[in-house]
Amino acid sequence: MASSTSVCNSVVQDRIFHAEAAPRCKKLVWNAYREELPVRSLLLAKGIIENDTCPCCGKGNETTMHALLQCEEVKTIWFGSPLGLRVETMHDINTVSEWIHECVALLDKRAMGIVCVIMWALWHRRNVWVLRQKKLGFPEVMAKACSMFFPDEWIPPLYPHVKANFSAFVQDNVGTAMGVVYRDSTGAPLASATNFMEKECFEVEIAEALCYRWALERAGELCFCDVIFETDCQELYSHWNEIMKEKGNIETCYLDSLLEDCRIMLRWTRSSLTLVGWGGNKVARNIALEAFVYGERVWTEDVMDEASHFVLADATNLQNQI
């Protein structure tokens, strides 16, 4: 039985971590599955607190099931979500673990991603109330959830936009390599480029920010307007959103300074930065890896041979969706 349970848990973990959601959301769902979230019933059992009443509704005991599915306001959010879930119809489900098990068995990675981001947003809502006594409504919870959902496949931009996927890699004592590919609404490459900063090694977020600024500069040189820049770096994307809200400390942080440069470059355009999963950024990642070999180079209306089959795979995927 222990071996069977181990295999089952392994499959559940694999399905959760392949969902189209930010890593922090998938980690929370995995912790919820293992009943490891610090809900009040768990804290009471450990002798840390003396009362396990739900801090949000004040009516039931705060178990993982109650916090993420059964609290009355939580039920309303699930029903209003894209899943349209009616929690009250889940008669045979007694724990969150059982429900997550059902989800991974029935849902694809996109729908499972929606589950992950909503569960994360609900837990965030709960913590905001506990720590700051601020109640987040349905629009705020869903906006938070949407900010954590991102596809794991490349999606073409709407005409006449251009999509620029970029990525950076840092190899200790070697340098920082960068790659970018610009594609139109049909998925056809308009240009691609590599860059290599020899002996200059940065933290991941700095390298990605430098790559973002470099990709913006190349887009200007190539006369591309209305560009959707896309990254798979969650840290860069989160920090970018803070900069766009003008919350960054531009005077003291190099990362903020780099992103402020990017913000200024985008000021008079309709360009933007979006987040995508690793699978949706594989062309740029492959190009960036090859930058260690190619150095600084630009391909017009093409990509290097080493990345061509990834472009073809994205194009094939698009055709299959039509």
Structure in words:
It comes from Phaseolus vulgaris (Kidney bean). It is elongated, with a radius of gyration of 22 Å. 51% of the residues lie in helices and 13% in strands. It is built from 13 helices and 6 strands. It is an alpha/beta fold. The chain has 2 domains: 145 residues, no CATH class; 160 residues, Ribonuclease H-like superfamily/Ribonuclease H (Nucleotidyltransferase, domain 5), CATH 3.30.420.
Question: How would you summarize what this structure contains?
Answer:
InterPro entries: RNase_H-like_EbsB-rel (IPR052929), RNaseH_domain (IPR002156), RVT-Znf (IPR026960). By secondary structure, the protein is α/β, with parallel strands linked by helices. It has helices spanning 2-17, 23-33, 40-45, 64-70, 72-80, 96-106, 109-132, 138-146, 204-221, 234-244, 254-266, 282-294, 305-321, and strands spanning 162-171, 175-183, 189-198, 227-231, 272-275, 297-300.
